[in-house]
Amino acid sequence: MAEIVLAIGCAHTPQLHTVAADWDIRAERDRGDGIPLWFKGRKLPYAELEAARSEENLAELLAMPVREAALEASFAAMDRLHDAFVEARPDAVIIVGNDQHEIFTDFVPSFSVIAADEIRNMPRTQEQVGRLPVGIAISDHGHLPQAEKVFPGHRELGLHLARQLVGGHGFDVTICHQKPTVTGAKSLLYGMPHAYGFLYNNIMRDHIVPQVPVDVNCWNYDNSPTAARCYDFGAALAEAIAGWDGPERIALLTTGGLTHFVVDEEWDRDFLRAMAEDDRDRLRSIPQSELMTGTSECKSWIATSAASAAAGLAMEVVDYQKLYRTEGGTGSSCAFVRWN
Ligand SMILES: [Fe+2]
Fold first, then answer.
1. Count of CA atoms in the C-beta half-sphere (13 A) of 58
2. CA–CA gap between residue 114 and residue 272 (Å, rounded)
3. d(CA 239, ligand 1 centre) in Å
4. Rounded to whole angstroms, how far apart are CA atoms 67 and 75?
5. Which helix (H) or strand (E) holds 249?
6. Is the pTM of this model over 0.85?
7. From ligand 1's centre to the CA of 161, what distance in Å?
8. 298 Cα to the center of ligand 1, angstroms
9. Contact 56, 263 (CB under 8 A)
10. Beta-carbon contacts of residue 16 (< 8 Å; ≥ 6 apart)
11. I need a surface site. Which of 75, 170, 253, 259 has the fewest CB within 10 A?
12. How many other CB atoms are there within 10 angstroms of residue 128's CB atom?
């Protein structure tokens, strides 16, 4: 019988893979209202956001030494998570990730499983780089390889998970028999979405084991599952893993979040508490208005937390860092968490 021996939640953001001074490239875009700025359930123009946060004195946290210390601590935390991954000796990984028009564009499933023997990741083409928002391409090394890489998939485990989630738990899961690829003018990359690639490069590194990507639609709100649905999906995923006949030691990985593109430490701390305590009432009731833009990736954390709780694992916060890039508090919060 398969067993979840470790789960990891690790932030990802272009800021982690950009020198601190270059955070200002994105900051200029934020100040110009170039991205939607959701804060505490409301979408604010940048000037109103900065006014609302004036008493927090966030300008002090924009100093280069503060930024560099946050980067250093974040990389130390990722080293610890990588070490935990190696020490857990997983035979297979299930990655609960999300897509942002990278593999799903014309067709968007709410939940999907990639059940394939091989999964490829590769650099972007020059045309794809040209379609990116400002300040993104310089961080591509955080989640894309320099040359094409072929990772082993775990097709049979993926099919098993889909059968159990659909037949046993009533989740309508799309099966992808190969990694979906967007082609033509909308194509941003031919490899895996950044949420997955980030884990290859920063957590798994050279310790590659067969994988099943499980995608939770966080980014396309029209059919993005609710927080409650994500929690229940995670609990069902744990049952499906426990029902797999193979002897595998399974690691569950997720990435993204926490609050961004506007950092809200109060929200993050409560979210970490709720996951640590398996406060399912809170986790299941987080409204969509608190899970917008980048923060929507917390939906995959909710599923992973529920799966970990169902498997009897305890959560530990390895580190929590805030990467501020404007006085209004835009940037990324970064949580580094393990369950075992
Ligand atoms: Fe992301």
1. 20
2. 29
3. 27
4. 13
5. strand 249-255
6. yes
7. 24
8. 10
9. no
10. 71, 74, 75, 139, 142, 323, 332, 334
11. 170
12. 18
257 contacts 251 by C-beta, under 8 angstroms: no
**What is the whole-number distance in angstroms between the Cα of residue 283 and the centre of ligand 1?**
20
Q: How far, in Å, is the centroid of ligand 1 from the Cα of 277? A: 25
Report CA(52)–ligand 1 centroid distance (Å).
26
First to last CA, the chain: 18
Contacts of 91 (CB under 8 A, 6+ apart): 209, 210, 247, 248, 249, 250
List domains and CATH numbers for the chain.
Answer: 3-339 (3.40.830.10)
| Best CA proximity match to 255, nearest among 311, 197, 309, 205 | 197
**pLDDT tens readout for residues 289-325:** 999 999 999 999 999 999 999 999 999 999 999 999 9
Provide the residue-wise pLDDT of the chain in tens; the chain has 340 residues: 899 999 999 999 999 999 999 999 999 999 998 888 999 999 999 999 999 999 999 999 999 999 999 999 999 999 999 999 999 999 999 999 999 999 999 999 999 999 999 999 999 999 999 999 888 999 999 999 999 999 999 999 999 999 999 999 999 999 999 999 999 999 999 999 999 999 999 999 999 999 999 999 999 999 999 999 999 999 999 999 999 999 999 999 999 989 999 999 999 999 999 999 999 999 999 999 999 999 999 999 999 999 999 999 999 999 999 999 999 999 999 999 999 9
Q: How far apart are CA 128 and CA 185, in angstroms?
A: 9
Closest CA to 192 of 321, 8, 12, 23: 12
| CA of residue 257 to ligand 1 center, whole Å | 7
Q: b or e along 260-293 (b: 16 or more beta carbons within 10 Å of the residue's beta carbon)?
A: bbbbbeebbeebbebbbebbbebbbebeeebbbb
The residue assigned the tokens 């590194």 is 205
CA of 335 to the centre of ligand 1 (A): 13
How far apart are alpha carbons 211 and 206 in whole angstroms?
14
